[in-house]
Structures are given as structure tokens and as C-alpha cells.
Write a structure and sequence with these properties.
- Helix content is 32%, strand content 25%.
- It contains 14 helices and 23 strands.
- The strands form 6 sheets. It has a 4-stranded mixed beta sheet.
- α1 runs parallel beside α7 and α8 packs parallel to α10.
- The model has no long low-confidence stretch (mean pLDDT 95).
- Bound molecules: uridine-diphosphate-2(N-acetylglucosaminyl) butyric acid.
């Protein structure tokens, strides 16, 4: 199995180019099956989840061509309405094809999605919303079958602003008769991106980025879209710069999407300078900050919590992390402890007391952001760490080792399955 070998203790210095956002491109790829035509997506990250989404589209009968960061999806011909379980298991956002298939085909057959194990991740809010829009859904442990000759105009209120449920409603609503109004919608930038693509395809979408979104569907045509920068990739490199007391320029970013994260690093004593598409961070020393409470956007993002915790493991003083989105998102804490971090965890709260230095260890990531957090810690630690769990990392970060090596990290990726 592939591993990362990281000789830590080197302050990172240089420029990292941030790729397109995983969590923006995945719903847009599902949306690309809606128009009877060709769509062109640029600035797409070259990561495993994108490969998986393209495979699902091909399985449904769309033609998909990729060249570097550009993906062409041609959904002109008739499409299938069924996704095999193996493909559903590859990632969480396979569930977004549910809303898209309903809108396009009037029927969708699939199974529960896979994805990172962050605690229970039900899809009850997705199904509840689609039922309110007129879909008949039959659900067993193995299969989910939803049907709707036509979805209808209605108002749907989500009990919680779930990102995925919001996206599924937007996708399905493009095939409804009349206007669907979604209340308590998620406000993440990735929702705004999906809405922009749907609008470019000819749908009427108003209010994305606020809690109330209105969608009026109709005949859609293919469209072009440049995917916005990945704010979680950016947050990870900010954490790596802070943890190594380095100085990085992140290029190709959207600073406005990262306000909660940059504010936390500023409070921790880092110097940050933002311009239109760049963030420069410089860190000489780190100090504890007021409690970091994860919350839906524009609050502190749950995906940035693990790398931020890795950085704060060597800050002077004690920082409290409160995780409010996922039930099981402190799984990186155990591995950070093995590297010398002082962390005590309750169900929702982790208390991190900074230590002078971390030391190298052989650790294994348990999910995408946890693995990134271990890499951040290893970059700061004394000695050579070995990190397993790269299948997780590859789902969301392209050229992770290469980008870090280019800014001075002593990091290599070993693919040899016999390497010990
Ligand atoms: N939830 C329910 N029922 C539902 C849907 C969600 O109870 O039907 C709960 C979840 O169990 C969770 C909370 O609501 O406790 C938030 O889930 P949400 O639906 O908002 O998240 P998601 O759509 O599954 C997306 C991102 C995650 C990110 C979260 C929160 C994608 C593909 N995934 O997941 O990203 O953490 O929103 O911002 O967009 C990652 O990139 O590493 C990642 C996990």
C-alpha cells in the first residue's frame, strides 16, 4: 500500500497553486447529466472522486472525456436510471445522482452511498425532500428506488441545512413543473457554484448562497463552467504553513470563501495578507485561540477542523475544538497523540494543549481530512513519519506530495506494496 514518508521540521516556503473544489465539481458533474447536450467544465481537480463521478456518468450512458483539468460531458443520448452498488460505494456524493436521475429520467435506482466514515451519515433529509416534491421512494437496505413522472412545485423546508440534501433538491427541481422553493438551504459556496451551472444551462435559480432558494426548471442546454477553488485544500496548506512556522502564498484561491479559517489563523498569531486570488500566510509562532466551533457555512468548516487541530498541537496554550456537524470527527486525535500531541477528546469536544514539538510516528489516516491532518503534523514533527491511508488522501488532494515538495517539504510517496 502506498505511504507518505515525511521528514518533518522544515518551514515551508513558496507558492502553492490551489486546484478546483472537489465539493463543487462533484454536484456539477451530476448536474451535467441534466441537459440533452454537451457541457464543458474547467479547473477540475484530478482526484479519485472526480474519476469515480466520471465513471458513474459513463455507466449511465453519457460520453465523458477528460483532458487535464477539463472535463467534457455529453449527455445528448438517452441515459440509464440505475447505478450499481459498487459505484455508489466509491464516495458520498454518488447520492447526488439521485436528484439528477429523477429530473432527467423520472426514475432513479441506486443504493446507499459510501464516503468517509465520520459517524452516521443518513440520507433521510434527501428522501424526505424528494417525497415532498412528489417522488415515490421505496427504500430497502440494499436498494433505493424513486419514481416521479413529474415532480411538482412546492415549498420544502430542510430541518438542517444539509449540503447534500440542498444539492439534491436543486438538481431534482430542474425537472419539476413550476417553482420549487427550498427553505433552510445550505449556504456553502459549492451550492452557489451548482446554482451558477444550472443557471448557465437555462434553469432559473434564485437565492443560492442564502437560506431560501427558488428553482424553476425547463428545457436545459449544455453549458460551460469554471470550477471555483478548493477552500479545503487551501485550509490544509494554511495549516501546513502554520504548523511548520513557514511562509506560503496560496494562488488561485477565493479568500472570501475562507473567512472563518483565515480569522482563526490570524487569532493564532499568523500574519495573513489577502488579495483577489491569493492568500499569503507567514507564521513565526502560534498561540492558542478561542474555541473553534464547527458550523454550517459561513461558520468554521468541519473539513478544516482536523488540519487546524494538527497545527494547534504545537501552539502555546490550550485550544478547544467543538465539532457540531459530524458525530465522529476526532479520529485523527489518536494518531496526533502518537506523535506527541496532548489532546483529550469527549464526544463533541477536543481539548488541545500545545507541546513544544511533535515527534515522528507511523500512523494511518482514517478519512480524507484526517489523513491530511496527519500529514500537516508530520511536516512539523521531528524525524521521519510514515503515513498510511493515501486512498483517502487521493480522493480529495491532487499532487499532494509534489506540491509540498515544491515548497521545501522533505516528503516522498512510496508506492511499493512491499515497502516496510
Ligand atoms: N445529515 C442527516 N441526514 C441527511 C443528510 C445529512 O442527518 O439526510 C447529517 C449528516 O449526518 C451530518 C450533517 O447532517 O451529520 C451534515 O451533513 P451534510 O449533508 O451537510 O454533508 P454532506 O453533503 O454529506 C458535504 C461535504 C463534506 C462536508 C459536509 C459539511 C461533499 C461531497 N461533502 O457532505 O465534505 O464535510 O458537506 O460541510 O460535498 C470532505 O470533503 O472531506 C467532506 C466530508
Amino acid at each position: 500500500m502506498a505511504k507518505l514518508l515525511i521528514q518533518g521540521g522544515v518551514p515551508l516556503c513558496g507558492t502553492v497553486r490551489i486546484h478546483g473544489a472537489k465539493n463543487a465539481v462533484l454536484p456539477i458533474l451530476a448536474a451535467a447529466m441534466l441537459p440533452h447536450g454537451q457541457s464543458v467544465l474547467t479547473n477540475c481537480p484530478q482526484i479519485a472522486d472526480v474519476t469515480a463521478a466520471c465513471a458513474i456518468l459513463r455507466g449511465l450512458g453519457a460520453q465523458v472525456r477528460t483532458r487535464g483539468g477539463t472535463i467534457l460531458v455529453d449527455a445528448t443520448s438517452e441515459l440509464d436510471d440505475c447505478i450499481p452498488s459498487a459505484q455508489m460505494q466509491t464516495m458520498r456524493s454518488s447520492i447526488l445522482f439521485l436528484g439528477a436521475m429523477l429530473a432527467r429520467c423520472g426514475r432513479a435506482e441506486l443504493s446507499y452511498p459510501g464516503g468517509c466514515a465520520l459517524g452516521e451519515r443518513p440520507i433521510n433529509l434527501h428522501l424526505q425532500a424528494l417525497r415532498q416534491m412528489g417522488a415515490e421512494c421505496s427504500v430497502t437496505q440494499e436498494r433505493i428506488v424513486c419514481r416521479a413522472a413529474r415532480l411538482h412545485a412546492c415549498t420544502v423546508t430542510l430541518p438542517f441545512p444539509s449540503v447534500g440534501a440542498t444539492e439534491n433538491v436543486l438538481l431534482a427541481a430542474t425537472g419539476a413543473d413550476g417553482t420549487v422553493t427550498l427553505c433552510n438551504a445550505a449556504r456553502e459556496p459549492e451550492i452557489v457554484e451548482l446554482a451558477a451551472f444550472l443557471r448557465a444551462c437555462g434553469a432559473r435559480v434564485r437565492g443560492a448562497g442564502s437560506s431560501v432558494i427558488e428553482v424553476t426548471g425547463g428545457e436545459l442546454h449544455g453549458a460551460q463552467k469554471r470550477v471555483c477553488p478548493d477552500r479545503m485544500e487551501a485550509a490544509t496548506y494554511l495549516a501546513a504553513a502554520a504548523a511548520t512556522r513557514g511562509s506560503l502564498t496560496l494562488s488561485g484561491v477565493q479568500p472570501a470563501h475562507l473567512t472563518a479559517v483565515t480569522q482563526a489563523f490570524r487569532q493564532a498569531g499568523c500574519e495573513l495578507i489577502e488579495s483577489e486570488q491569493e492568500i499569503r500566510i507567514r507564521c513565526d509562532r502560534l498561540r492558542a485561540i478561542p474555541p473553534v466551533r464547527t458550523a454550517p457555512y459561513p461558520g468554521f468548516p468541519t473539513d478544516a477542523q482536523p488540519p487546524m487541530m494538527a497545527a494547534m498541537a504545537t501552539a502555546a496554550g490550550t485550544t478547544v475544538f467543538e465539532e457540531n456537524i459530524f458525530a465522529s470527527r476526532f479520529r485523527h486525535a489518536q494518531s496526533l497523540r502518537e506523535m506527541g500531541a496532548k489532546i483529550s477528546c469527549g464526544r463533541k469536544v477536543a481539548v488541545v494543549t500545545g507541546v513544544e514539538t511533535l515527534h515522528a510516528a507511523s500512523v494511518s489516516g482514517t478519512d480524507l481530512r484526517a489523513t491530511a491532518a496527519l500529514a500537516v503534523a508530520a511536516l512539523a514533527a521531528q524525524g521521519e513519519s510514515r503515513i498510511d491511508g493515501l486512498a483517502y488522501l487521493d480522493r480529495g488532494y491532487s499532487a499532494f506530495a509534489e506540491k509540498l515538495r515544491a515548497v521545501g517539504a522533505r516528503i516522498r510517496r512510496v508506492e511499493d506494496p512491499n515497502y516496510e
